[in-house]
Amino acid sequence: MKKLALIVLLLVFGTSVAFAQSGDAKATSGSVYSQIGIGYPLSTSNSAAQSMGLLGVSFNETFVGTIANPAHWGNTVYGLGVGEIGIDSYSASDGTGSVTNSNFSVGQFQLQLPIIRGELGVSGSFTPVTEAKFRTFEQKTLTIGDNFQGETIDFNLENRGSGGLNRAELGLGWRINSNISVGYAASLYFLSMDDSYVARFPQSPYRNVNFNIETSGHSFGHRVGTFIRLPNLLREDDQLGIGATINLPVELNAERKQTGIIDNGAVTLTKNLQNADGPIKLPTKVSGGVSYSPSNMWMIGLEGLYEGWSGYENDFKPSENQMFVDRYKMGLGVQYFPYVTGSTNFLSNFKYRAGASYDTGHLDIDGQRINTLKFAFGIGIRSPRSNSSIDLSVEYGIRGTQTSNLVQENIWGVRLTLNLAEVMFFRPKLQ
Fold it and tell me: Where are the alpha helices (DSSP H) in 305-405?
Protein backbone atom coordinates (compact mmCIF):
# COMPACT_ATOMS: atom_id res chain seq x y z
CA MET A 1 0.00 0.00 0.00
CA LYS A 2 2.94 2.34 0.59
CA LYS A 3 4.03 1.91 -3.01
CA LEU A 4 0.49 2.53 -4.26
CA ALA A 5 0.32 5.70 -2.18
CA LEU A 6 3.63 6.79 -3.70
CA ILE A 7 2.22 6.42 -7.21
CA VAL A 8 -0.82 8.53 -6.31
CA LEU A 9 1.46 11.16 -4.78
CA LEU A 10 3.65 11.23 -7.90
CA LEU A 11 0.56 11.54 -10.09
CA VAL A 12 -0.80 14.49 -8.13
CA PHE A 13 2.61 16.18 -8.01
CA GLY A 14 3.26 15.56 -11.69
CA THR A 15 -0.11 16.93 -12.73
CA SER A 16 0.41 20.10 -10.68
CA VAL A 17 3.85 20.57 -12.21
CA ALA A 18 2.41 20.09 -15.68
CA PHE A 19 -0.17 22.83 -15.14
CA ALA A 20 2.49 25.11 -13.68
CA GLN A 21 4.76 24.57 -16.66
CA SER A 22 2.06 25.11 -19.24
CA GLY A 23 1.13 28.35 -17.54
CA ASP A 24 4.74 29.52 -17.39
CA ALA A 25 5.38 29.76 -21.10
CA LYS A 26 7.80 32.63 -20.50
CA ALA A 27 10.32 30.35 -18.79
CA THR A 28 10.38 27.34 -21.13
CA SER A 29 9.89 26.52 -24.77
CA GLY A 30 9.98 23.40 -26.91
CA SER A 31 10.17 22.70 -30.62
CA VAL A 32 9.33 25.59 -32.93
CA TYR A 33 7.44 23.10 -35.12
CA SER A 34 4.94 22.54 -32.30
CA GLN A 35 3.34 25.83 -33.42
CA ILE A 36 1.70 24.05 -36.36
CA GLY A 37 -1.58 22.19 -35.90
CA ILE A 38 -2.30 20.95 -32.37
CA GLY A 39 1.33 20.45 -31.34
CA TYR A 40 4.15 18.09 -32.17
CA PRO A 41 3.46 14.33 -31.70
CA LEU A 42 5.12 12.76 -28.65
CA SER A 43 6.42 9.25 -28.12
CA THR A 44 4.14 6.99 -26.06
CA SER A 45 6.59 4.10 -25.68
CA ASN A 46 7.67 2.72 -22.31
CA SER A 47 11.01 3.50 -20.69
CA ALA A 48 12.73 0.41 -22.12
CA ALA A 49 11.64 1.15 -25.68
CA GLN A 50 12.55 4.85 -25.45
CA SER A 51 16.15 3.92 -24.60
CA MET A 52 16.33 1.83 -27.78
CA GLY A 53 14.58 4.17 -30.20
CA LEU A 54 11.67 1.71 -30.38
CA LEU A 55 7.90 1.78 -29.82
CA GLY A 56 7.63 -1.22 -27.48
CA VAL A 57 4.91 -3.13 -29.38
CA SER A 58 6.92 -6.34 -29.96
CA PHE A 59 8.31 -7.02 -26.47
CA ASN A 60 7.55 -6.48 -22.80
CA GLU A 61 9.16 -7.05 -19.42
CA THR A 62 7.53 -8.72 -16.46
CA PHE A 63 8.44 -5.92 -14.05
CA VAL A 64 8.00 -2.88 -16.32
CA GLY A 65 4.58 -1.50 -17.25
CA THR A 66 3.81 -0.62 -20.85
CA ILE A 67 1.08 1.21 -22.77
CA ALA A 68 2.52 0.61 -26.25
CA ASN A 69 0.50 -2.54 -26.96
CA PRO A 70 -2.74 -3.45 -25.12
CA ALA A 71 -2.04 -7.13 -25.77
CA HIS A 72 0.91 -7.01 -23.33
CA TRP A 73 -1.49 -6.45 -20.44
CA GLY A 74 -2.61 -10.07 -20.72
CA ASN A 75 0.87 -11.11 -19.50
CA THR A 76 0.62 -9.07 -16.29
CA VAL A 77 1.81 -11.02 -13.26
CA TYR A 78 2.39 -8.30 -10.65
CA GLY A 79 0.85 -4.92 -10.06
CA LEU A 80 2.92 -2.30 -11.90
CA GLY A 81 3.14 1.47 -11.72
CA VAL A 82 4.95 3.86 -14.04
CA GLY A 83 5.73 7.57 -13.66
CA GLU A 84 7.93 9.66 -15.96
CA ILE A 85 9.49 13.11 -16.08
CA GLY A 86 11.93 14.60 -18.58
CA ILE A 87 13.75 17.66 -19.80
CA ASP A 88 14.65 18.57 -23.38
CA SER A 89 17.05 21.18 -24.71
CA TYR A 90 16.46 22.65 -28.18
CA SER A 91 19.19 24.49 -30.09
CA ALA A 92 17.39 26.00 -33.07
CA SER A 93 19.10 27.81 -35.94
CA ASP A 94 18.19 29.24 -39.33
CA GLY A 95 20.02 31.36 -41.88
CA THR A 96 20.02 34.45 -39.65
CA GLY A 97 20.74 33.28 -36.11
CA SER A 98 20.27 30.69 -33.38
CA VAL A 99 18.58 30.28 -30.01
CA THR A 100 18.66 27.67 -27.25
CA ASN A 101 15.80 26.88 -24.88
CA SER A 102 14.72 24.06 -22.60
CA ASN A 103 11.46 22.36 -21.75
CA PHE A 104 10.56 20.40 -18.62
CA SER A 105 7.73 17.92 -19.07
CA VAL A 106 5.75 15.36 -17.13
CA GLY A 107 5.21 12.21 -19.18
CA GLN A 108 2.97 9.20 -18.89
CA PHE A 109 1.49 7.72 -15.73
CA GLN A 110 0.16 4.20 -15.65
CA LEU A 111 -1.23 1.61 -13.26
CA GLN A 112 -1.27 -1.97 -14.60
CA LEU A 113 -2.87 -4.77 -12.59
CA PRO A 114 -3.56 -8.50 -13.11
CA ILE A 115 -7.10 -9.78 -12.89
CA ILE A 116 -6.02 -13.37 -13.55
CA ARG A 117 -2.26 -13.48 -13.14
CA GLY A 118 -0.44 -14.07 -16.41
CA GLU A 119 -3.71 -14.37 -18.34
CA LEU A 120 -5.93 -11.31 -17.93
CA GLY A 121 -4.83 -7.80 -17.01
CA VAL A 122 -6.12 -4.24 -16.91
CA SER A 123 -4.37 -0.91 -17.44
CA GLY A 124 -5.29 2.69 -16.65
CA SER A 125 -3.08 5.53 -17.87
CA PHE A 126 -2.71 9.21 -18.62
CA THR A 127 -0.50 10.11 -21.58
CA PRO A 128 0.43 13.33 -23.41
CA VAL A 129 -0.10 12.75 -27.16
CA THR A 130 1.02 16.08 -28.63
CA GLU A 131 2.72 19.12 -27.11
CA ALA A 132 2.61 22.77 -28.16
CA LYS A 133 5.14 24.91 -26.32
CA PHE A 134 6.78 27.61 -28.37
CA ARG A 135 7.68 31.30 -28.63
CA THR A 136 8.17 33.23 -31.87
CA PHE A 137 9.21 36.87 -32.22
CA GLU A 138 8.94 39.01 -35.37
CA GLN A 139 9.84 42.62 -36.17
CA LYS A 140 7.51 44.25 -38.68
CA THR A 141 6.77 47.60 -40.26
CA LEU A 142 3.29 49.06 -40.75
CA THR A 143 2.43 52.03 -42.99
CA ILE A 144 -0.58 54.12 -41.97
CA GLY A 145 -2.15 56.31 -44.62
CA ASP A 146 -0.87 56.88 -48.17
CA ASN A 147 2.15 54.75 -49.14
CA PHE A 148 4.15 57.89 -50.05
CA GLN A 149 3.02 60.29 -47.36
CA GLY A 150 1.80 57.90 -44.68
CA GLU A 151 3.40 57.26 -41.30
CA THR A 152 5.73 54.27 -40.94
CA ILE A 153 5.57 52.43 -37.63
CA ASP A 154 7.88 49.67 -36.43
CA PHE A 155 6.36 47.09 -34.12
CA ASN A 156 7.12 43.69 -32.58
CA LEU A 157 4.79 40.70 -32.76
CA GLU A 158 5.28 37.95 -30.17
CA ASN A 159 3.41 34.64 -30.25
CA ARG A 160 3.49 32.19 -27.32
CA GLY A 161 1.79 28.82 -27.24
CA SER A 162 1.29 26.07 -24.66
CA GLY A 163 -0.83 22.97 -24.15
CA GLY A 164 -1.58 20.03 -26.42
CA LEU A 165 -3.56 16.83 -26.76
CA ASN A 166 -3.77 14.32 -23.87
CA ARG A 167 -5.26 10.87 -23.50
CA ALA A 168 -6.84 9.12 -20.52
CA GLU A 169 -7.20 5.42 -21.22
CA LEU A 170 -8.59 2.22 -19.73
CA GLY A 171 -8.01 -1.14 -21.35
CA LEU A 172 -7.91 -4.92 -21.03
CA GLY A 173 -5.42 -7.53 -22.26
CA TRP A 174 -6.06 -11.26 -22.65
CA ARG A 175 -3.45 -13.98 -23.09
CA ILE A 176 -5.36 -16.53 -25.14
CA ASN A 177 -2.66 -19.17 -24.89
CA SER A 178 1.12 -19.37 -24.38
CA ASN A 179 1.69 -17.92 -27.86
CA ILE A 180 -1.03 -15.36 -28.61
CA SER A 181 -2.30 -12.31 -26.71
CA VAL A 182 -4.83 -9.64 -27.70
CA GLY A 183 -5.91 -6.36 -26.12
CA TYR A 184 -8.32 -3.45 -26.42
CA ALA A 185 -8.27 0.06 -24.95
CA ALA A 186 -10.88 2.83 -24.84
CA SER A 187 -9.61 6.39 -24.58
CA LEU A 188 -10.84 9.88 -23.81
CA TYR A 189 -8.88 12.48 -25.77
CA PHE A 190 -8.99 16.06 -24.61
CA LEU A 191 -7.36 19.07 -26.22
CA SER A 192 -6.34 22.24 -24.37
CA MET A 193 -4.22 24.91 -26.06
CA ASP A 194 -3.49 28.59 -25.34
CA ASP A 195 -2.19 30.82 -28.11
CA SER A 196 -1.34 34.41 -27.14
CA TYR A 197 -0.29 37.32 -29.37
CA VAL A 198 1.20 40.64 -28.29
CA ALA A 199 1.86 43.55 -30.67
CA ARG A 200 4.18 46.18 -29.14
CA PHE A 201 4.94 49.65 -30.52
CA PRO A 202 8.15 50.65 -28.69
CA GLN A 203 8.76 53.99 -30.48
CA SER A 204 5.26 55.32 -30.97
CA PRO A 205 2.33 56.51 -28.86
CA TYR A 206 0.23 53.51 -29.88
CA ARG A 207 -0.76 51.18 -27.07
CA ASN A 208 0.14 47.50 -27.02
CA VAL A 209 -2.49 45.13 -28.39
CA ASN A 210 -3.01 41.67 -26.87
CA PHE A 211 -5.33 38.85 -27.82
CA ASN A 212 -5.53 35.21 -26.78
CA ILE A 213 -6.94 32.15 -28.53
CA GLU A 214 -8.06 29.19 -26.41
CA THR A 215 -8.78 25.93 -28.22
CA SER A 216 -10.36 22.98 -26.44
CA GLY A 217 -12.01 19.76 -27.49
CA HIS A 218 -12.67 16.15 -26.62
CA SER A 219 -13.56 12.82 -28.18
CA PHE A 220 -13.43 9.08 -27.61
CA GLY A 221 -10.86 6.81 -29.23
CA HIS A 222 -10.21 3.11 -29.60
CA ARG A 223 -7.16 0.95 -30.22
CA VAL A 224 -6.49 -2.77 -30.46
CA GLY A 225 -3.31 -4.81 -30.33
CA THR A 226 -1.95 -8.30 -30.71
CA PHE A 227 1.25 -10.01 -29.59
CA ILE A 228 2.65 -13.36 -30.80
CA ARG A 229 5.33 -15.11 -28.77
CA LEU A 230 7.34 -17.95 -30.31
CA PRO A 231 9.76 -19.53 -27.77
CA ASN A 232 12.53 -22.03 -28.55
CA LEU A 233 12.46 -21.05 -32.21
CA LEU A 234 16.11 -21.47 -33.22
CA ARG A 235 17.65 -22.63 -29.96
CA GLU A 236 16.69 -23.45 -26.41
CA ASP A 237 15.50 -20.47 -24.33
CA ASP A 238 15.34 -18.05 -27.27
CA GLN A 239 12.18 -16.14 -28.21
CA LEU A 240 10.74 -14.30 -31.19
CA GLY A 241 8.16 -11.61 -30.52
CA ILE A 242 5.77 -10.11 -33.10
CA GLY A 243 3.48 -7.25 -32.14
CA ALA A 244 1.11 -4.82 -33.82
CA THR A 245 -1.39 -2.14 -32.77
CA ILE A 246 -3.98 -0.01 -34.56
CA ASN A 247 -5.29 3.34 -33.28
CA LEU A 248 -8.56 4.17 -35.00
CA PRO A 249 -9.05 7.74 -36.30
CA VAL A 250 -10.44 10.34 -33.88
CA GLU A 251 -12.60 13.39 -34.58
CA LEU A 252 -12.42 16.00 -31.82
CA ASN A 253 -15.42 18.18 -31.06
CA ALA A 254 -13.43 21.39 -30.70
CA GLU A 255 -14.25 24.92 -29.60
CA ARG A 256 -12.28 28.13 -30.01
CA LYS A 257 -12.61 31.18 -27.79
CA GLN A 258 -10.87 34.47 -28.48
CA THR A 259 -10.39 37.43 -26.16
CA GLY A 260 -8.55 40.69 -26.63
CA ILE A 261 -7.27 43.46 -24.35
CA ILE A 262 -5.58 46.83 -24.74
CA ASP A 263 -3.49 47.93 -21.76
CA ASN A 264 -5.46 45.54 -19.52
CA GLY A 265 -8.77 47.08 -20.57
CA ALA A 266 -11.48 45.00 -22.21
CA VAL A 267 -12.28 45.84 -25.84
CA THR A 268 -14.96 44.71 -28.28
CA LEU A 269 -13.65 42.03 -30.61
CA THR A 270 -13.87 42.47 -34.37
CA LYS A 271 -15.57 40.01 -36.69
CA ASN A 272 -12.19 38.38 -37.32
CA LEU A 273 -11.96 37.43 -33.61
CA GLN A 274 -15.06 35.38 -33.03
CA ASN A 275 -15.81 32.33 -30.95
CA ALA A 276 -16.34 29.23 -33.08
CA ASP A 277 -16.64 25.46 -32.98
CA GLY A 278 -15.81 22.71 -35.44
CA PRO A 279 -14.13 19.31 -35.89
CA ILE A 280 -10.43 18.44 -35.77
CA LYS A 281 -9.73 15.10 -37.45
CA LEU A 282 -6.80 12.97 -36.26
CA PRO A 283 -5.38 10.12 -38.37
CA THR A 284 -5.19 6.36 -38.12
CA LYS A 285 -2.02 5.09 -36.46
CA VAL A 286 -0.53 1.65 -37.15
CA SER A 287 2.59 0.33 -35.41
CA GLY A 288 4.30 -3.03 -35.52
CA GLY A 289 7.60 -4.81 -35.21
CA VAL A 290 9.61 -7.88 -34.30
CA SER A 291 12.04 -8.64 -31.49
CA TYR A 292 14.40 -11.55 -31.02
CA SER A 293 15.98 -12.72 -27.76
CA PRO A 294 18.71 -15.36 -28.25
CA SER A 295 18.80 -15.63 -24.44
CA ASN A 296 17.39 -13.83 -21.41
CA MET A 297 20.48 -11.57 -21.48
CA TRP A 298 20.09 -10.12 -24.99
CA MET A 299 17.34 -8.74 -27.18
CA ILE A 300 17.31 -6.89 -30.50
CA GLY A 301 14.23 -5.20 -31.92
CA LEU A 302 13.08 -3.61 -35.19
CA GLU A 303 9.83 -1.64 -35.13
CA GLY A 304 7.97 0.82 -37.33
CA LEU A 305 5.11 3.32 -37.28
CA TYR A 306 2.68 4.74 -39.84
CA GLU A 307 0.35 7.70 -39.25
CA GLY A 308 -1.96 8.99 -41.98
CA TRP A 309 -1.52 12.71 -41.30
CA SER A 310 -2.36 13.57 -44.92
CA GLY A 311 -6.00 13.18 -43.83
CA TYR A 312 -5.63 15.66 -40.96
CA GLU A 313 -8.22 18.46 -40.94
CA ASN A 314 -8.53 21.50 -38.67
CA ASP A 315 -11.39 23.91 -39.37
CA PHE A 316 -9.68 26.58 -37.25
CA LYS A 317 -6.44 26.51 -39.28
CA PRO A 318 -7.47 25.42 -42.80
CA SER A 319 -4.40 27.06 -44.35
CA GLU A 320 -2.16 24.59 -42.48
CA ASN A 321 -3.91 21.40 -43.65
CA GLN A 322 -1.77 21.23 -46.80
CA MET A 323 1.41 21.04 -44.67
CA PHE A 324 0.49 17.62 -43.24
CA VAL A 325 1.76 14.43 -44.86
CA ASP A 326 1.81 10.77 -43.93
CA ARG A 327 4.38 9.94 -41.27
CA TYR A 328 6.73 6.93 -41.18
CA LYS A 329 9.12 6.01 -38.40
CA MET A 330 11.60 3.14 -38.05
CA GLY A 331 13.72 2.17 -35.06
CA LEU A 332 16.42 -0.39 -34.32
CA GLY A 333 17.60 -1.15 -30.79
CA VAL A 334 19.32 -3.64 -28.52
CA GLN A 335 19.29 -4.38 -24.78
CA TYR A 336 21.69 -6.31 -22.53
CA PHE A 337 20.93 -7.60 -19.02
CA PRO A 338 24.21 -8.89 -17.50
CA TYR A 339 22.74 -9.25 -13.99
CA VAL A 340 20.98 -12.51 -14.96
CA THR A 341 24.37 -14.28 -14.91
CA GLY A 342 24.59 -13.74 -11.16
CA SER A 343 27.77 -11.70 -11.48
CA THR A 344 28.68 -9.52 -8.49
CA ASN A 345 30.61 -6.98 -10.57
CA PHE A 346 29.35 -3.43 -10.16
CA LEU A 347 28.65 -2.89 -13.87
CA SER A 348 26.66 -6.11 -13.99
CA ASN A 349 23.95 -4.66 -11.75
CA PHE A 350 22.41 -2.52 -14.49
CA LYS A 351 20.27 -2.93 -17.59
CA TYR A 352 21.82 -1.48 -20.75
CA ARG A 353 19.93 -0.31 -23.83
CA ALA A 354 20.85 1.60 -27.00
CA GLY A 355 19.35 2.29 -30.41
CA ALA A 356 18.47 4.76 -33.15
CA SER A 357 15.37 5.88 -35.05
CA TYR A 358 14.49 7.81 -38.20
CA ASP A 359 11.21 9.71 -38.43
CA THR A 360 10.06 11.25 -41.72
CA GLY A 361 7.81 13.58 -39.73
CA HIS A 362 4.24 14.65 -40.38
CA LEU A 363 5.04 18.10 -41.84
CA ASP A 364 6.07 19.25 -45.31
CA ILE A 365 6.83 22.98 -45.41
CA ASP A 366 7.79 24.61 -48.72
CA GLY A 367 8.64 21.20 -50.15
CA GLN A 368 10.87 20.23 -47.21
CA ARG A 369 10.06 17.26 -44.95
CA ILE A 370 10.62 18.00 -41.26
CA ASN A 371 12.33 14.71 -40.42
CA THR A 372 14.09 13.63 -37.24
CA LEU A 373 17.11 11.39 -36.69
CA LYS A 374 17.62 10.28 -33.07
CA PHE A 375 20.10 8.22 -31.07
CA ALA A 376 19.29 6.86 -27.62
CA PHE A 377 21.04 5.20 -24.70
CA GLY A 378 19.62 4.07 -21.37
CA ILE A 379 20.53 2.46 -18.06
CA GLY A 380 18.13 0.58 -15.82
CA ILE A 381 18.93 0.69 -12.09
CA ARG A 382 17.39 -2.23 -10.24
CA SER A 383 16.16 -2.00 -6.67
CA PRO A 384 18.21 -4.25 -4.34
CA ARG A 385 15.12 -5.14 -2.29
CA SER A 386 12.34 -5.51 -4.87
CA ASN A 387 11.60 -5.89 -8.57
CA SER A 388 11.18 -2.13 -9.01
CA SER A 389 13.66 -0.11 -11.02
CA ILE A 390 14.58 3.38 -12.18
CA ASP A 391 15.32 3.91 -15.87
CA LEU A 392 17.48 6.80 -17.07
CA SER A 393 17.56 7.47 -20.81
CA VAL A 394 19.45 10.04 -22.89
CA GLU A 395 18.53 11.05 -26.44
CA TYR A 396 20.18 13.20 -29.09
CA GLY A 397 18.35 14.15 -32.26
CA ILE A 398 18.48 16.40 -35.32
CA ARG A 399 15.19 17.75 -36.65
CA GLY A 400 14.36 19.90 -39.65
CA THR A 401 16.56 21.79 -42.10
CA GLN A 402 17.82 25.31 -42.78
CA THR A 403 16.81 25.02 -46.44
CA SER A 404 14.06 27.43 -47.57
CA ASN A 405 14.67 29.62 -44.49
CA LEU A 406 13.41 26.86 -42.18
CA VAL A 407 14.74 25.92 -38.75
CA GLN A 408 17.04 23.06 -37.82
CA GLU A 409 16.94 21.83 -34.22
CA ASN A 410 19.56 19.90 -32.26
CA ILE A 411 17.70 18.17 -29.44
CA TRP A 412 19.09 16.74 -26.21
CA GLY A 413 16.64 14.86 -23.99
CA VAL A 414 16.94 13.21 -20.57
CA ARG A 415 14.14 11.12 -19.08
CA LEU A 416 13.76 9.55 -15.66
CA THR A 417 11.18 6.80 -15.25
CA LEU A 418 10.13 5.11 -12.01
CA ASN A 419 8.92 1.53 -12.50
CA LEU A 420 7.21 0.17 -9.40
CA ALA A 421 6.54 -3.57 -9.34
CA GLU A 422 4.41 -5.67 -6.97
CA VAL A 423 2.26 -2.68 -6.02
CA MET A 424 -0.71 -4.79 -4.99
CA PHE A 425 0.74 -8.27 -4.68
CA PHE A 426 3.56 -9.12 -2.27
CA ARG A 427 5.33 -12.42 -1.90
CA PRO A 428 4.68 -13.90 1.55
CA LYS A 429 7.67 -13.95 3.90
CA LEU A 430 8.66 -17.12 5.72
CA GLN A 431 7.74 -17.06 9.39
Answer: none
